[in-house]
Amino acid sequence: EYDGDRNAEGERHGFGKARLPNGDTYEGEYEHGLRSGRGTYRFKGGALYTGSYLQNRKHGKGIFFYPDGSKYAGDWVNDQRQGHGEYTYANGDTYTGEWFNHMRHGQGTYIYKDTGSKYVGRWVNGIQEGPAELIHLNHRFKGRFFNGKPLGRGKYVFDFGCEQHGEYIQLEQEKEEEEEEEGEEVSLPVEPKWKASEITTLTPWTPEDEKPPSP
């Protein structure tokens, strides 16, 4: 069903309200039969989008409220979260920063609601990767991340005025002596281990910045 403006060709054009066959509704601007301009789209399942459209796709600035209580406010390109935006997750965590192709990609800040800790740094395809700082209540870690884990040289900076330098080392998977019943090796991911080298007063060292790989 459609109630609204039409152009000389009879196309939906201008402002209108529509109910789609699947039960979704749209109220907003149209151009030549397509959702274009500002509008609000309500999904039958409870989600809601309000913002800019271009030829039936979310494009420009907009806010999406998801059924689980999370929401995204920011830039959209061709129906994807892309550009700069803030996502508030159902558990209260937030991410503010760059997006590409619907994923966290580029520079961004993720705040963990439960602990108050925050990750400030690079992301690649939704994963923490590159130079970053992990900030806790009374200390912080500065270094590089790879595949969501710290790896390589870095330092812990303590608020009471000293630093512990060192590096995160990826240990080899230790082979189990006993054979598995199935006869297959079960390899569990090994967490990188912190190896401290020295304690110093505060120094201005920061990890070298590198451009994230192009998407």
Automatic annotation (TrEMBL):
Where composition is biased (Acidic residues), the residues are 174-185
Q: Where is this region: Disordered?
A: 1-27, 172-215
Chief localization: cytoplasm
Chain intervals with Basic and acidic residues compositional bias: 1-14
This chain belongs to which protein, by name?
Radial spoke head 1 homolog
Q: Which UniProt keywords are present, listed alphabetically? A: Cell projection, Cilium, Cytoplasm, Cytoskeleton, Flagellum, Meiosis, Repeat
**The UniProt record lists the keyword Signal:** no
For this protein, the record's Pfam families field holds: MORN
Query: Could you confirm whether the keyword 4Fe-4S appears in this record?
Result: no
Role this protein plays: Functions as part of axonemal radial spoke complexes that play an important part in the motility of sperm and cilia.
* Annotated localization: Cytoplasm, Cytoskeleton, Flagellum axoneme
